[in-house]
Amino acid sequence: MGLLGRSTSIGLELDTGAIRVAAVSGGARRPVLSTVGSVEIPEQAVVTGVVEESEMVRGALRELWGQSRVGGRTVVLGMSTPGMLMRSTTFPRVPDDRLEQAVHLQAGDYFPIPMNQLVMDFAVLGETETEEGAALNLLMVAARREQLHANLDCLRDAGLSCDIIDASPLVLARHLPESARTETVVVADIANGLTSLAVVDQGVPRFARVLPVSLESYAETLSVSLAEVPLDAAADAEVTAGAESWALRVADEISSSVNYFIGQNEGGSVDSVYVSGRGSRVPGLTRFLLEQLDMPVEQLNPAGGLHDTRARGFDPETGGADYSVAIGLALRGLEGVG
Asked: Which of 17, 99, 104, 296 lies in the 20 to 30 Å Cα band around 51?
C-alpha cells in the first residue's frame, strides 16, 4: 500500500461487466489525463468488486493493456465490495511514531470481524478536543483479506503489480469543483456492480459506504444485460416508468446515508449531491434525484481535478462519467509528486 514516486500514475477499476483504466501524468499540481480505456468482461467474472473468474479477468487485462497502450504495469487499485468496512472515530492523541501501532492494536474494537480476516488502513482527518483531552479524527477502512488477495493475485498473474490500494468511495472527492470544497456534499458513483458513496465535508471525506443498488440491479428490472441498458439522453429527460422503482431505490439509499451521517454529526447538514459512474447516465436520473432528495443534484465532472485531458475518446459529458473512479485512483497515485 506504499506510495512510490512517479511521473505517471495508473488507476484500475474492476467492475461487474467491465474493467476500466486511466493514466494521469504531469504531477499532482498539473495532472494531465493521458489515457483511458475499458474492456467488457462476462458479468460473472467480477461480482460486486471481487474477481470470481480469474482466467477471464487475466485475459481481459492483457487485452485492455494492449488496446489502450498504457505504458506502465504498476497500478493504483480501487476496492469497493459489500465486505468493505469503514468507520469514523476519534482516537486519543499519541506521538506520530506510535500512532500506526496504537491504531492497529485497538482496531478490533471497531470491526465485527476478527482482524486476522481483514486488511486495515486509516487516515487522519484532523484533530479535535474531547472530555479526555486532545484526540484525532480517524477514518478507518478494512477489506476482507481473501477478497483483496483474490484481486491482487489476478493482477499478478496478468503481469501487473499494485503499490497502492484505495477505497473507491474515497477517491471521488478529487473531482469536486472548488465551490463544493467549502460545503458538505455527497458524491455517489453508480457503477455496474455497486454504488460507492462518500460524504465530503470541506473537501475531506468524513463518511463512506458501499450501497447495494447498482446499474446491474436496473438491468435486472428491464430483463436485459448490462450492455443493453439504455443510457444518455437530453438533460431534461424524465425517468421512464420502467426505471422509476430503481431510481427510487437509489434515492432512498442516498437519503438513508445522508440521514445516518447527520445523526452521527450533531448539527450537521448536507448541501448537495454529485453523481457519477455509468449508472448516472440513466436518462432522467439526475432530475429524479433532485426532486426526491429536495437538494441540488449534479453530474460529477471526472475532469474536475485535471489540468488537461489528452486521452483519445474521453468526453466528460457522456461516457467520461464511467471513469470517475479510475481517474480518481490515478490522481491518488500522484500525491506527493510534483
From this structure: 104
Q: Determine the 3-state secondary structure of 160 from DSSP.
A: coil
Domain end marker among 107, 125, 143: 143
- Containing domain of residue 135, as a range? 85-143
Distance, CA of 24 to CA of 3 (rounded, Å): 15
Q: Is residue 3 part of a domain?
A: no
CA neighbor of 54 nearest in space, from 14, 20, 22, 23: 14
Residue 115 belongs to a domain with what CATH number? 3.30.1490.300
| 17 and 133 inside one domain | no
pTM beyond 0.85: the answer is yes
Tens of pLDDT, residue by residue over 98-139, are 999 999 999 999 999 999 999 999 988 888 888 888 899 898
Residues facing residue 120 across a β-bridge: 142
Query: Shortest CA distance to 278 belongs to which of 258, 296, 257, 300?
Result: 300
Looking at the fold, whether 91 and 46 belong to one and the same domain comes out as no
Q: At residue 28, what is the residue type?
A: A
What's the start-to-end Cα distance of the chain, in Å?
Answer: 20
Residue 113 sits in the same domain as residue 154: no
Q: Is residue 1 part of a domain?
A: no
Rounded (10°) CA dihedral 126, 127, 132, 133 = 160
Residue 2 resides in a domain:
no
Instruction: Name residues whose C-beta falls within 8 Å of residue 317's C-beta, 6 or more positions apart in sequence.
Output: none
d(CA 4, CA 21): 19
